[in-house]
UniProtKB/TrEMBL annotation:
Organism per entry: Spirosoma soli
Domain annotation Tryptophan synthase beta chain-like PALP: ranges: 14-305
Similarity comment: family membership: Belongs to the ACC deaminase/D-cysteine desulfhydrase family.
Keyword Protein transport: no
Cofactor: pyridoxal 5'-phosphate
Protein's name in the database: Threonine/serine dehydratase
Pfam families in UniProt: PALP
Gene3D superfamilies, A to Z: 3.40.50.1100
Keywords tagged on the record: Pyridoxal phosphate
Family annotation (PANTHER family): SERINE / THREONINE RACEMASE FAMILY MEMBER, SERINE RACEMASE
The keyword Heme belongs to this UniProt entry's keyword annotation: no
Amino acid sequence: MISIDTIRDAHDRIRPHIHRTAVLTNQTINDRAGAELFFKCENFQKIGAFKARGGLNAVLQVAQNKEGTALTTHSSGNHAQAVAFAARQVGLPAYIVMPRTAPQVKKEAVLGYGAEVIECEPTLDAREAGVREVIQRTGAVLVHPFDDDRVIAGQATAAKELIEDYGQEQPFDVMVAPVGGGGLLSGTALTTHYLSPTTRVVAGEPEGAADAVLSFRSGQVEKAPYIKTIADGLMTTLSERTLSIIRAHVSDILTVSDDEIIAAMRLVWERMKIIIEPSCAVPLAAVLKHPDQFAGQKVGIILTGGNVDLGKLPF
């Protein structure tokens, strides 16, 4: 059970190692959305993504509790960087299984933090098989990208900061986050439930990796009908753990096309003058696609990361 005290403890634990990231607004985007949007800029976070929060919260506890002498995970990039970064902070080796199709900028960042990269085929089965081999070979402790209460509690601290900084006097009407494996969405939903119970939580998901919306409706973990999206950070399926939290505390999951993701990403680059990656643009794309659901409301959006391959921009 992840309580508000669990989330507060996670925040206290990771605070010395992270940035309290800026919250930005943009009048042009507000006008286009017909709503008042507050962007929590985790693209300015250590490692360039919110994943630093969950990775640190888990790894700091692994080290403190002396649970193992090495760390491992599987990730297409941002969680890989988070575990590599956190492992360096505590002086433990890290073995990161990454799909061969992961952006080169993310692989190089993981190597830069001193971790070993093991490439695999871009399937969940291949990623999990790679981790099992690492554990057998090295005895490393797995820090799962999302199916882990310590990771979820760490991710929950981004929404905690957003609510504390901009949702106290006038609560947010809606909080929007992207969904892949569901770690950030679960954490965001729990924090919002505890600290701003009148606020709805809505997720954005790529049409080309639309498993969460199916799972949300059916009540069991489903696979996407097909996987083909520019949002490389959102290709994983939910776990039983994240699905149960999402079904309890999330109002809706809205899907968006790659063209809509790219348009939202470009809008942020052009109007806000900040770098975000495709997965990061999914919540804004969902807001722009469904203006009727957000019209005239105060909306918090988690901008999840900015680790984009500048040599392969989609515009």
